[in-house]
Automatic annotation (TrEMBL):
Name recorded for this polypeptide: FAD-binding protein
UniProt KW Oxidoreductase keyword: yes
Organism annotation: Nocardioides turkmenicus
UniProt keyword annotations, A-Z: Oxidoreductase
PANTHER family: D-ARABINONO-1,4-LACTONE OXIDASE, L-GULONOLACTONE OXIDASE
Length: 416
């Protein structure tokens, strides 16, 4: 059955306008059968997600496929929720909360689609919290032959397919493990110095359920290095050398805090505190670029010292940096595969040339075993060096997509 949804004239750009898509057209199928029909008749196509990558990751010379109009709703069976891939996390979270259920974590932005976030290994924060992909118990994917394939946790291809960077097909549905709903309070702790960060880094990252350290990597006029965002399910912890903010803060100093989730220790539902930004506001600043590197947690101090050593080059290009922790998993292309990681995130100014000039030197200074976030900017020509199952994933991609229908320039650079 052919899709009846008309194609848009222009595929548009990424959320931050960091990349203009060059695809021939964009279509919005309304059913899984429509998706299968597209795959069977189009030689080149690619799932679009919610446009929150910063590169040509989702582009194609053929047809972009958005699942944001897929005719499906979530459904709950016991502890597991079945979700259409194009649904946004903020919408899913509100739906779950109405039914007394929750997810273990959320990313900074609730605006991102479930399938796109999972496919790129996107994460929140917390030394005991895995990436969003670790909640997946099953996924359904239309492969390069137009077949609908269901993979469940424990099946041979599951761990390779979950963080699939769009190389295996179009993920139409996912199933996620949920828990009973819970309350979270958020506080901001100001005045963190670099000396206190170095001495107490592991302690700070483990101080609460979810912890983020925001910094511009150089000392501020008051001598501080950054602020600590603490999201707690119990009592508010003390953070060495800091004081509690008495007014709401934006993660980027000086901006209006209205787009940010509620602070000042007021308890609220998990989905209204774990993200940094509210669903009904534009997150961050919009005009920006982003990079993120995930480093084995046992090399965390080496990593922060490496970035600090480049502060005079990082700071002029940076809107804000974020330091988080993510728990290990067994998903082949997850940046947390096999090890707990320290996540070093950078929200850059919209200066592509300046960022491109900096990234090779920044990456060279980071410890061995550092892995990139797939949806953001990185410079390495050999990203697979940090992933033990890299060749296995490449073989899996060839098997799921033998005619390379989902292949694009980004995969050609990254997978080879």
């Amino acid at each position: 059955m052919r899709t009846e949804t008309p194609a848009l004239d222009a595929p548009g750009s990424t959320w931050a306008r960091s990349y203009d898509y060059t695809a021939r057209e964009l279509v919005r199928p309304r059913s899984v059968d429509d998706v299968r029909d597209l795959v069977l008749r189009e030689p080149r196509l690619r799932a679009l997600g919610s446009r929150h990558s910063f590169t040509d990751l989702a582009d194609t010379p053929g047809v972009l496929v958005s699942l944001d109009r897929l005719d499906a709703s979530p459904s709950l069976s016991g502890d597991v929720v079945r979700v259409p891939g194009g649904m946004r996390y903020g919408e899913l979270a509100a739906w779950l909360e109405e039914r007394g259920r929750a997810l273990p974590n959320l990313a900074s932005l609730p605006h991102i689609s479930v399938a796109g976030a999972v496919a790129t290994g996107t994460h929140g924060s917390g030394v005991a919290n895995g990436s969003l992909a670790t909640s997946v118990t099953a996924l359904e994917i239309v492969d390069g032959r137009g077949e609908l394939v269901r993979l469940e946790s424990g099946s041979p291809d599951f761990a390779g397919a979950v963080v699939g960077i769009g190389a295996l097909g179009i993920v139409t549905h996912l199933e996620l493990l949920t828990s009973p709903t819970y309350q979270v309070s958020q506080t901001v702790h100001e005045g963190l110095t670099y000396d206190d960060l170095r001495e107490h880094l592991t302690e700070i990252l483990g101080a609460a359920y979810s912890v983020s350290i925001f910094t511009r990597w150089g000392d501020e006029p008051d001598g501080s290095f950054g602020r600590v965002w603490v999201k707690s399910r119990s009592t508010t912890p003390e953070i060495p050398g800091t004081v509690l903010a008495t007014e709401p803060r934006h993660v980027i100093p000086g901006l209006d805090a209205a787009p940010c989730t509620e602070q000042l220790g007021v308890p609220g539902p998990w989905h209204e505190r774990l993200p940094h930004f509210r669903l009904d506001f534009q997150p961050s600043v919009g005009a920006e670029l982003q990079s993120e590197y995930l480093v084995p947690l046992d090399r965390a101090q080496e990593a922060v010292d490496a970035v600090r050593s480049l502060a005079d080059r990082v700071r002029p290009l940076l809107q804000v940096g974020e330091i988080r922790a993510v728990a290990a998993d067994d998903l082949w292309l997850s940046p947390a595969y096999g090890t707990d990681v320290l996540a070093l995130h950078f929200t850059w100014l919209a200066d592509p040339a300046g960022v491109a000039d900096l990234l090779p030197d920044l990456e060279q200074r980071l410890p061995a075993g550092t892995r990139p976030h797939w949806g953001k900017l990185f410079a390495t020509a050999d990203p697979g060096a940090g992933f033990p199952r890299w060749d296995d994933f490449r073989a899996l991609a060839r098997r799921f997509d033998p005619d390379r229908r989902f292949w694009n320039a980004w995969l050609d650079r990254v997978l080879g």
